[in-house]
Design goal:
four-stranded antiparallel beta sheet; 49% strand
Length: 380
């Protein structure tokens, strides 16, 4: 297998080099009043997932945490809506990912991924590339590797190599998940997220109600995946979104039990339970980490549930904070000072200051144009 992979990588590098020198950058127009400020740590980006044309709306973050719209950037693709969804059209986490100067946005309705170069609060569209499957919903990056999770047709993951500001798809890095595409409602039975472990040596996929399992692929030194994942079934848990604590333990938002659970991942790929804490809320689906704090989004309750990392995979509940209706995807600023969460019922974003004890203080809200039901948020 290594020979064709090497050939694929060599071809990828050659194609990318040609693209860099032969193709002009495709710049998407900023909205009226777009800032020329190129500060590297003050922008928040929100995906609309519009079915008539997906877009990323850019906001400047003021020192007090409030957001101010500065531009709208079409992705060049279409958003999508899973059957049965209301406030979470992609029913996933990680559909908009910021990594080392690039922003990756899924276009579920056109089976593509858009690559933006990030310049402060402004975006330059570099590429729109096929996702290697049907209905992409989640992206993860580690070093020069990028993997995309496709939700329909039984689900699949597809690997890419990053070369400068471009992605090159490696066909032999595609793995089907083998989920049942006939189960309904669709939005609860499609996979939820793909994520690299902190070391980059394993790739994690959640299947939600379609098997209620956590799949773990091994990642080889070239970036390819093991032929099949190690699958750990969590009956009734419906694992949805994931994160990792400082000790590299897996932290999972479980929609079936409305709980946050932690696990260790063995080198073999086996997932071993450590702790579980019920949120007491409804539709606990998303989770965001801020240092030693975790915040789970409860779409059915319009709230965030806070947890402290108690060490060795343990969790300590911090309490519940209300948000707008339909709490979905969330992100934390790189300095750890602010958390922003999408409220899918109206298509808004609620902002919170993260206090020293992990409690949250609301700093404001914005309404994202065309953002109702959309998912995907990333902060610098």
């Amino acid at each position: 297998m290594r020979t064709p992979v090497r050939l694929a990588l060599a071809s990828a590098a050659a194609v990318a080099a040609t693209a860099l020198f032969a193709a002009p950058a495709l710049a998407a127009p900023a909205g009226a009043g777009a800032s020329t400020d190129t500060r590297a740590s003050s922008a928040v980006f929100v995906q609309t997932d519009g079915v008539g044309g997906n877009a990323v709306v850019a906001y400047d973050r003021a020192p007090d945490g409030s957001l101010h719209q500065v531009g709208t950037y079409p992705t060049g693709g279409l958003g999508g809506v899973l059957a049965g969804s209301v406030v979470d059209h992609l029913a996933s986490q990680g559909s908009l990912v910021l990594d080392r100067g690039l922003l990756y946005a899924v276009n579920a309705g056109s089976n593509t991924v858009t690559v933006f170069a990030v310049h402060g609060d402004q975006l330059v569209r570099r590429e729109v590339i096929g996702s290697g499957g049907s209905f992409p919903v989640s992206v993860t990056a580690h070093g020069g590797l990028v993997y995309v999770l496709n939700a329909r047709s039984g689900g699949s993951v597809q690997g890419f190599v990053r070369v400068a500001d471009f992605l090159i798809r490696i066909p032999v890095w595609n793995r089907p998940l083998g989920l049942d595409p006939t189960l309904a409602p669709e939005f609860t039975h499609t996979p939820g997220q793909v994520a690299f472990t902190p070391s980059g040596s394993q790739l994690v996929v959640t299947t939600k109600g379609n098997g209620s399992a956590i799949d773990v692929f091994g990642v080889d030194r070239l970036g390819g995946l093991s032929p099949h994942p190690v699958t750990t079934v969590e009956p009734g848990a419906v694992p949805f979104a994931v994160g990792f604590d400082a000790g590299a333990h897996l932290v999972v938002a479980e929609a079936g039990t409305n709980a946050v659970a932690t696990f260790s991942i063995a080198p073999s790929g086996a997932v071993v339970p450590i702790a579980t804490s019920a949120t007491g809320q409804a539709a606990t689906c998303w989770i965001a980490r801020d240092g030693s704090w975790f915040y789970a989004s409860n779409a059915g309750s319009g709230s965030l549930s806070g947890y402290a990392d108690a060490g060795a995979g343990g969790l300590s509940a911090l309490g519940t904070t209300p948000t707008g209706a339909g709490t979905v995807d969330a992100t934390v600023t790189s300095d750890g000072r602010y958390l922003y969460v999408q409220t899918g019922a109206a298509g808004g974003v609620d902002g919170f200051r993260v206090n020293l004890d992990g409690s949250l203080t609301k700093v404001g809200s914005v309404l994202v144009p065309g953002g109702a039901g959309g998912e995907g948020i990333a902060a610098q």
